Amino acid sequence: MTNKNSAALNVETDQLLERVYQVKPELQYEVRDGIVFVIKEQNAWVQRMLRKIKYKIPETSEMELDQYGSFILQQIDGQRNVREIGEHLGEAYEEANNQLYDRLLLYLNHLEKNEKYIERIG
């Protein structure tokens, strides 16, 4: 790799680490003993129809995040950037320091693009 490519990668990495995210306002979740439970409405037309004919379909479901996911979601406040979240994660969980920012960026991308729990604001 040439120095030119290396410098370009460093600039791109720095830009990624400066990103700021916020939890989407419509996301419903609860924190219990440090673990985040995301609450999703079960409001598809089939579920509503089955409820009308007295099937016991819960109106919500919960998805429990693991300890890392819970920690990260609670760090996302619209002010901390990825670098700061990573520093806090590394301090709280020493074992998370192995490939910290690679994994953190992948997880944040998953939360933003796939789950749609967060949005980038900076």
TrEMBL record:
User: Origin, by domain of life?
Assistant: Bacteria
Q: Check the record and name the Pfam families matching this protein.
A: PqqD (PF05402)
- Report the protein name in the record: PqqD family protein
